Amino acid sequence: xSLNESExxxxxxxxxxxxxxxxxxxxxxxxxxxxxxLVQSCDYFGALYRSGMRECRQEEIHLHCLRARGFCIAxxxxxxEVPGLDAENIVEAIECAAFLQAVPLxxxxxxxxxxxxxxxxFHTAATFGLLELYYxxxxxxxxxxxxxxxxxxxxxxPELISFVExxxxxxxxxxxxxxxxxxGESVHAASRTVCYLDETANTWRTLTDLPLEAxxxxxxxxxxxxxxxxxxxVRGIHKGVVDACFCYDVNKNIWTExxxxxxxxxxxxxxxxxxxxxxxxxxxxxxxxxSVEILEVRTGRWKFAAxxxxxxxxxxxxxxxxxxxxCLWKPLETTEIHExxxxxxxxxxxxxxxxxxxxxxxxxxxxxxxxxMRNGPSDDFLRCMMDCxxxxxxxxxxxxxxxxxxKGSLFTAVVRSDSVFTLxxxxxxxxxxxxxxxxxxxxxxxxxxSGSVWTFLLRLxxxxxxxxxxxxx
Length: 473
Hints:
Elements: H1 8-12, E1 21-26, E2 29-34, H2 35-41, H3 43-51, E3 60-62, H4 68-78, H5 87-100, H6 103-111, H7 118-128, H8 131-143, H9 145-155, H10 158-166, E4 170-176, E5 193-198, E6 203-209, E7 219-224, E8 227-232, E9 234-235, E10 240-241, E11 244-249, E12 254-259, E13 269-273, E14 276-284, E15 287-296, E16 301-305, E17 316-320, E18 323-330, E19 334-341, E20 346-354, E21 360-366, E22 369-376, E23 380-390, E24 395-398, E25 403-404, E26 414-416, E27 419-423, E28 427-434, E29 437-445, E30 453-459, H11 462-465, E31 469-470
Parallel strand pairs: 1-3
Antiparallel strand pairs: 1-2, 4-5, 4-30, 5-6, 6-31, 7-8, 8-11, 9-10, 11-12, 13-14, 14-15, 15-16, 17-18, 18-19, 19-20, 21-22, 22-23, 23-24, 23-25, 26-27, 27-28, 28-29
Helix pairs in contact: 2-3, 4-5, 5-6, 5-7, 6-8, 7-8
C-alpha cells in the first residue's frame, strides 16, 4: 500500500467485484477499465459495488448523463497522468467529477485553477455543485480581485459575486529566524512574532507570538490547509534540536504541539501537500541526511518515505500542478530537479541545468512553470539569476537580465495568483508574472527583522486581523 492511501482502500479490498474489469459506455464509446481503480477513485462506483444492486453484477454499465471526453480525462487522472485542459474540456471534466464524485479529478481541477480559467471554473463548479473546486476557485478570484473586478462583474451572477466578496484574500506572512532560549525569554519578544503585511496601510502587523518551545532557526516552515506548521529547528545556546512540531490554526487563533519526526533534524525543508507534511533531508549532529518523513495530519503519525537521491540540507522545494519538486546540487555546476511521486513512493529526476559557478538556491511554482533562483557567478548572491523550467514542454528558459538580490530577496519568493512577493529588511517587492517574465509592480515596506526570514501566505479571519498591532523595528 502506498503512503497516501486511505483506510477506505482497505474496505475496497473486501468488495466482491465479480470480475477484474468493467466496460463503461459513454456516448456509445466503450471504456474497459479495472474495477478496483474505478472504485478507489470514484465514490459513485464505490457506492455501486457496495449496494448489492443488479448493476454491480453487470459486465457493462451505461452512463447516459456524461460526455466521453470528460470521462476520458477522469480515467487519465485516475491512472496518475496530469492532463492539461482547455475551456471546453474544463466544463466536461467538472461535470464528470461531480457526477462520479471523483476525488482525484476534483483535486486535479483545483490544482489547475489560474487567472485564465478561474471564472469558468468557479461558475461551472457552482452549476454542478463541486464544492471543493467552487471554494478554491473563489479564493483564487478573491486573491486577484482588484485586477479582474470588471470582468467578474460582467460575467458572474450577483450571488456568486457576493460569495467571492465575502472571502478574505491570502496575505503575505513573515517570521524571522528565532532561537528559543528557555524560561528567561520574554513572551512578547519582537523576534518571536509571526507578522503579516497590511497592503492597504503599507505596514507590517503582528498576528501571533511563537510558542516558547518553538524555534524558527534552521527549522522547516510551511502552510497546509491554511494552518502554519513549524518542524525541528535549534534551541538554546548549545543549539539543541527541537523534537516537536507546532501548528497554528489561524481561524481559532491557537497553537497546538504535535509529535515531531522520528529522526531529529535541523535545516530541513518542509512542504505541505494533500493533507500531508513532508520533512525533507536536513542535518543531525553535523551529518547531512537523505531521509524523508511524511506526517499524515489526520492521524498525527509520521512515516519514513523514499530517501532523496543524495543527502541534502535546506533544499529548495516547490509545488506546481499538484506535484512536489526539490532542487538538488551535483558536482560540475549542475542543478537537478527531482519530483516525489506519492503513489509510488519514489523520486524521479525531471531535468538538469548546468550553469557556470551557479546553483539553484530557491524555487517557486506558477502554473506549469518552475522558477529557479540561483546565485550569480563566483557565488555572487547579490546578482540573482533566474531560469524557468516548463513541465509541459520540458524546456528551460533563462529570464533576461540580473535581479538585484540585495533589494528584493528572491530566495524568499512567494506566489499569490499571478503575483510574486519578495522581501528583505528594507523593501517588499511585488512582481507580476506574465509570459514567463517577472515585471516589477510595486514596492512596500520591508520586513523589519535581521537575519533569515520565512515567508508564506495565510487567509486571516476578520476577528484575528482586528486584534493586530504594528510591528516596530
